[in-house]
Amino acid sequence: xxxxxxxxDQFCGARIHQCDLSGLEIRDCDVTxxxxxxxxxxxxxxxxxxxxxxxxxxxxxxYVEAELDRLHPNRxxxxxxxxxxxxxxxxxxxxxxxEETLDRARRLPEAKLHEQVDGEWSFVETxxxxxxxxxxxxxxxxxxxxxxxxxxxLPGGGMPAEASAxxxxxxxxxxxxxxxxxxxxxxxxxxxxxxxxxxEAELDRVCGRKPADPYPDKEYVVRRCLTVVCKEEAEHHRYAVRDLTxxxxxxxxx
Length: 254
Fold this sequence. Notes:
It is a single chain. A two-stranded antiparallel sheet has the order 1-2. The chain has 254 residues and is mainly alpha-helical. The chain is globular, with a radius of gyration of 20 Å. It has eight helices and two strands; from the N terminus they run ββαααααααα. Strand 1 and strand 2 (58-59) form a beta hairpin. Helix 3 (84-106) runs antiparallel to helix 6 and helix 4 packs antiparallel against helix 8.
C-alpha cells in the first residue's frame, strides 16, 4: 500500500531532492510557493485554484483561465454576476446545462455513475456535494431554514467528520442517482425562486447565519452566497462532463 498523509504539516518547507516521486498525488493541500525544478516526467497533471502558475519560466495563468472560459462559458456568468438580472441569467444557463448533462448521464448504467475517475468524486457524489453547497449557502445562510441540511449532502474534503456529523450528514450513504436528485432538484428550484425574487437591495443584505459552523465567523452577504453557489455549479459541471466522457468510453468497450 502506498503511504498516505492526511492533515499533516511535515512537508511544509521541505526540500525533496533526487527522489522517485512517480505516481505522487497531492490532493486538497495548500501548495503556495510550491516549486518543481529540473524534474522530468511523461505525464504531469495540475488542477485546483492557483493564483499564479509558471511553467518553464512562462506564466500560463491567464492562458489557462481564458481557455477554461472558452470551453465552459458559464464559468464567466457565474464569476462575474453582480446584478439581480445577471444572477438570473447565470442560473438560467446553469439549469440548462445540468438538464442536458443529467439526460446524458442517465444513458449510462447506474453503476457507472458511482465510479470515480482518477480518484475524483463520482457523478452521484458530485450531485451530493452540490446539494450540500445549496443547503449551506442558500438554505442556511440566505433563507435561515429550520432544517437546511439534507443527510445525503456531501461537504468538501476540508470539513472534519465530527462537523459533518453535527449537521446530520451521512457521509457513508450509497444512494442512487434518483435518490440524490430528489432533494437536489428541489434545492435547484429553491435557488430559482431566490433569483427570480432577487432585488438589488437584497443582494447586499447581511445574512443572519454563516453557511455552517466550520466556516469563519464573519459577515456573509447574499451576493457572496449566490456567487459561491453559481461558481460551485459551474466548476463541478466542468468536472462532471470531463469524467462522463471517460465513463462513456469505458461503457463502449465493456
